[in-house]
């Protein structure tokens, strides 16, 4: 992989300059109290497995003061720059590209009363160094509204109740079913309503529609609310176990069946995710779901399951944790021409679900993977992994991480299920509590299925990123 060293140095210099300007705004001073971690609160059963496999945010939000700011308002900002280099972009041999993904979030929170919070957040993202015809839809969004909601929060009978109305985030557990896809430049949000009842034991009842990104015009969702669900999070019912049952409804108009008959899609997904700790330093995570419904005049019969098991050697230096993983999402085998068997991946955070190259989606796929993560210090984490990727059935297509078709299956099906093998290594380090660095490299060794269908170029991706977050209040935030 060719890496433009001068470009990287320039990017790092520009990013640090932006950070310096942000912290030297007139009238703003550093707060002396430590900032709370920005990571969401977790129950004991939640802590541990998630971060190493999906890059949950680490580091703290730096607290700043601005005396003339009203006490009922808070400003916040996130700056992120990530240099990426690929050797075979779009599966093209010698299609080397080095580019910079920049992302700026800026938010304003207002608290007019004890029970009401309002929030507005803008997003501005760019893919520098890439011609527009190869810029993916998740890379660029020029100054738009990412979130804008009103949160009414009460505590009747000591049970917290919230109603969030407007443009907002939805993310649950490992985010393999519903997540914001934070790794992508244009992370996901929804328009609609979410009612949250409870705290450590909580249920979310939501009716929403995902926001479609338009790079040079206003982002908006489609007509009506199309994605609904009930997602429960039970953190204390069973000791050392976090159980999350869910039921999701997807309603899409104007689809075309396998018989070319137009109609509507009405799809129900029901399942559960469970994670927790076992004796002898073992931990686990599992998720399974089934999908039923109709796709115009066709019926839907699909499902998915992933299982992870880890062992942590707590007495060894760096506390190595070795894990095994199995992922399976059904494909359409076409045995019944009135039935669709392709699992609908919904709205997942797919980064590193099938390797750091992020080429494949959770549809018609099977994976076996080995993970090893290490913690040399509290601020440094390392992850090494190897995966074996296959189609679930040769009769269905290969799908991208966004769920679109990458290679359409021929009428007779593919000659092989072997997508390929991948090796990845990555690390994350937190500098001085507030600046978070990510670095990694992933390589896909194409299998017979890719090679036999004009997608056989081996792909290597490398990246280096820096992220910095801060918030501004009238007074020092409480520790």
Could you characterize what this model shows?
InterPro entries: Alginate_export_dom, Alginate_Permeability_Chnl. It contains three helices and 24 strands. With 479 residues, it is mainly β. The chain has a single domain, classed as Beta Barrel (Porin). The strands form two sheets. It has an 18-stranded antiparallel beta barrel. The longest helix has 19 residues, at 5-23. It is globular, with a radius of gyration of 23 Å. It starts with a helix and ends in a 6-residue tail after the last strand.
Mean pLDDT: 88
Assembly state: single chain
Low-confidence stretches: 1-51
**Shape from CA axes?**
globular
| Secondary-structure class | mainly beta
Instruction: Give a quick account of the main beta sheet: strands, pairing sense, barrel closure.
Output: 18 strands, antiparallel, barrel
What fraction of the residues are assigned to beta strands by DSSP?
Answer: over 45%
* CATH class assignment: Mainly Beta
Q: What pattern of helices and strands is seen along the backbone?
A: HEHEEEEEEEEEEEEEEEEEEEEEEHE
Number of strands: 24
Keywords: Plasmid, Signal
Signal peptide: 1-31
InterPro entries: Alginate_export_dom, Alginate_Permeability_Chnl
Organism: Granulicella tundricola (strain ATCC BAA-1859 / DSM 23138 / MP5ACTX9)
